[in-house]
Amino acid sequence: MIINRIQQLAIKKLGNVSLLTILLVPFAMQIFAVVGLTGYLSFRNGQKAVNELVTQLSNSVTARIDQRLQNYLNTPHLIQQVQADAVRNGTLNITDFSKLEHQFWNQIELSDAVDYIYYGNKEGNFLGVQKYQDGRTVVKIRDLSTAPKREIYLLNSNGDRLKLIKSKNYDPRVRPWYKATIKKGLSTWSPIYISADLGILQITPTTPIYDEKGSFIGVLATNLLLSQISDFLRELKISKSGKAFIIEHSGNLVASSQDEPPFIIRNDEIIRLNANNSSEPIIKLTVQHLWEKFGKLHHINAPTYFRVILKGKKHLVQISPIENSKGLEWLSIVAIPESDFMEQINTNTRNTFILCFSALVLAIILGIFTSRWISNPILKLSKAAQAIASGKINQNVEGKNIKELEVLAGSFNSMARQLRESFEILEAKNADLEEAKEALAKSKEQLEAVINAVPGPISWIDSDGFYLGVNQHLAGTLNLSPDAFIGQEIGFLSNSSEFAKFMDNFIYSSDKSTSQIISIQVKNYLLYYLVAAHKYQQGKATVSVGIDITERKKAQEALRIAEENYRSIFENALEGIFQSTPEGQYISVNPAMARIYGYNSPEEMITNIKEIGTQIYVDPNGWDQFKHQLEQEGKVKDWEYQVYGKDGSILWIKENTRVVRDDTGKVLYYEGIIENITKRKQKEEALKREVEELKIEIDKTKQNQQVADIVEAESFQTLKQKLTRMKQKRRKKFEQIEKD
Length: 740
Fold this sequence. Notes:
Blueprint: H1 2-14, H2 19-89, H3 97-110, E1 116-121, E2 126-131, E3 137-142, E4 149-155, E5 161-169, H4 176-184, E6 188-189, E7 193-194, E8 201-203, E9 205-210, E10 216-222, E11 224-225, H5 226-235, E12 243-248, E13 253-256, E14 263-266, E15 269-272, H6 281-294, E16 304-310, E17 313-323, E18 329-337, H7 339-389, H8 399-453, E19 458-462, E20 467-470, H9 472-477, H10 497-507, E21 513-522, E22 525-536, E23 541-548, H11 550-572, E24 576-580, E25 586-589, H12 591-596, H13 602-608, H14 612-615, H15 620-633, E26 635-644, E27 650-661, E28 667-676, H16 678-711, H17 713-739
Antiparallel strand pairs: 1-2, 1-10, 2-3, 3-4, 4-5, 6-9, 7-8, 8-11, 9-10, 12-13, 12-18, 14-15, 16-17, 17-18, 19-20, 19-23, 21-22, 22-23, 24-25, 24-28, 26-27, 27-28
Helix pairs in contact: 2-7, 16-17
């Protein structure tokens, strides 16, 4: 309808024109409009695709930075907390620097998470083990023998000292990491400062150490070099000219994917570099924009996006806060220029315009030939009509020719009308299809985000044992891209024959789902995963999901060793060890306790003693007094009382017992140690009897002395000599008792 109106308007304006012009001009105008619209839509869609791609890439890079830094920043505090718990529980003697040095060396050798672990106490003593970036391992020590200097020794592959390589004055109590911990009183982060040994920038996660009584004794710390964070940012695949960097809320640069260091050297002094003074234009421009928009950088508490223009090029910038529960607050910034992706789009757009222009020229040429082919028969008919009108009535003009033109016009109008209706229906269906495609794309994007956010490996494998795809976690763990797995046979990396065998057995079995614990070798470390697999598409494909249970396996092994150690102490102790209920029934006793009471085995004693208060205590009130003191003070120390043995004999026992409670304070059981002090008590009773006998003899001597004074003075001398002999005899008895 619109085209007809344009044609009618053109005829009115132009007046009489040839049929060839009427047919050709509208046709050429339509082709030109279609070509122009196609080129414009091609450019717009390309630019939209680039914007979406840049945003997705920025989100992906930011997520990877955040995930890597969280692992990098949380691991040191976890290691320190384990050590602090060991000190508090008494299983680690942190004052024994010899054993502590060996333990630090083992942790450095076994863990890639930290390369420097050290400890400084309130007396100024210091011990640390560090692996330098050149691969050498050293121990750093300051104690009473080296103070005020700290000595650094090179270690061999067994952790033994080789030689002294450096000695310099050093006091840990004045270092930033020690002061920050004292000020905070909890696990925290030091400010970024210069290493006293290496002279480079670093930051220190720290944990205060307390003894069993809760008294502060020192600080446990590990160092993180800022250069290591910069190395990670350089390894990120952002884009051709994309950049990533991290800053503090003060604006000081922490790390950057560029070669620019986060410091400057002025008069042989290292000074922190503020991002406002960076030599990288995009870093400087981005931080200036942040200051202008937010005023203070600590106001940024959520991911933020904006665009900046640098040298005529648009850059998408994403800022994401990096926060740590221990007080660390940084900002991660990713800047990606759109030009990195527009070059191909511009090339495609240019090619599209060339192709459309070529199609326009070709369409015009074809339109000319087509118009002539259509207009020639009509011109012949027109000449025939003019001939008849001029009076040449002998022309063979059949009325059917005019009728065919009318039918042709009617058919064309009918076809045009049907075409318009079909086009409207097609547009409606196309709109529904676009909505469905958009919804599908969003669902796919959400599914990919969920899968890549899963902190465990996920893989899809066909029925022939070849990878269909993996998630980002699995690819990143093995230092590969997800595309590197597609089409590869399971087991191609040779790092887990268990997984390959597990999947082969499952694929060729009739089971629809299964699970198994599998070990995988990753970067010289053996990791354990609980892998669950499920078939789909009628068994033509499988999906497997793994959960990292390495730490749980390590904890189980540590628990097993601890239980074995406790069982060895329990079974082989010379003192009696027991656990009992508050009601007076034994839960467990060790062999030594059974022997003290005269039983052949702990089982026999537990079976026979049903009520401690009446079967064990000679004085039944003693059990009630014992329980009362436990309830009041939570423990009983050096409790001495008489008990019955298996054969009915009476024994003297000294007992130390404590109350064990659950998290709610409810009493679970009593736990204590007993010692048989019967012989000691017998000796004490014998000594008392000797003293009483001596008193009696002294009284008799006094009476005799009085009689001797009356009878004769010489008798007094005799009595005196006798008393002297008695004293000597008593002294010998005391000496003999002390020797026994």
